[in-house]
Design goal:
Number of helices: 6
Low-confidence stretches: 124-132, 235-247
Distance between the termini: 47 Å
């Protein structure tokens, strides 16, 4: 659905705001719908990407560092830790161009402690701790960081599969980035925001809660800051598997 179609549906079926002057202006409704898409992707990890090289600059990075790596990462010899796009919720898969199989991960500190004793602080040391100097594992870490253990001994390229947030806001003339089957779900969070607006003509706490609950039922609860950190650092792997090193 286009943004204008979502705005019309929101105004007609949720807000009963079809007569001029509107209680909610079009720019306010499209902004709330975009916030709903961010909420949906953050809660349910709806956007899985393995092809977009970088984030093309975000509001938080464009004025300083410019484009940030998304699914393609330049690897520097002997460097283990890399900063990636703030749009990434979690790196789910990481494969070096020089290797036959992807690295094992994302793994947790506890898992690495079990399989590679003494790894911490040595991820940048080549040819020492246990794996022959070959990169074997990767971790998601807070502050948009990814760590490779052990650090590659040569320059390389890493290809990532990530779950991420939308890259740009949609407009009245464009569509949300998530699949269309989820577009109608955005209306619930947008309606929640509209009815939570601190204005005597618009605020309705009962309806705000009703639509918030509907959205949560569909997309899941929102994690707090600690929960977001744990999503990044905890492994999705049920067990660890060694990976073959390719030529």
């Amino acid at each position: 659905m286009l943004g204008r179609e979502l705005v019309d549906e929101l105004r007609e079926s949720y807000l009963d705001d079809i007569n001029l002057p509107y209680l909610w202006q079009p720019n306010e409704l499209i902004r709330n719908l975009n916030r709903a898409e961010v909420q949906a992707t953050r809660r349910a990890h709806l956007l899985i990407d393995s092809t977009t090289a970088n984030d093309s600059g975000t509001a938080g990075t464009a004025s300083t560092m410019g484009q940030m790596p998304l699914c393609k990462l330049t690897i520097v010899a002997d460097q283990a830790v890399y900063r990636v796009s703030p749009k990434i919720l979690q790196v789910r898969r990481l494969q070096l161009q020089s290797m036959t199989y992807p690295l094992t991960g994302p793994v947790s500190f506890a898992e690495l402690d079990e399989v590679q004793s003494g790894w911490f602080g040595t991820s940048g040391t080549i040819g020492t701790a246990g794996s022959g100097g070959y990169p074997t594992y990767f971790l998601n870490e807070p502050n948009n960081m990814v760590t490779i253990v052990l650090a590659p001994s040569a320059s390389d390229t890493a290809f990532l599969t990530v779950s991420r947030l939308p890259l740009i806001s949609f407009t009245l003339q464009t569509s949300p980035e998530i699949d269309e089957q989820h577009h109608d779900g955005l209306l619930d969070w947008a309606a929640h925001l509209c009815f939570a607006k601190p204005d005597s003509e618009t605020r309705n706490d009962n309806l705000a809660k009703y639509y918030s609950d509907k959205f949560t039922e569909r997309f899941g609860p929102l994690s707090n800051a600690y929960g977001e950190k744990m999503k990044k650092t905890l492994s999705q792997m049920q067990r660890m598997r060694p990976r073959e090193f390719g030529s």
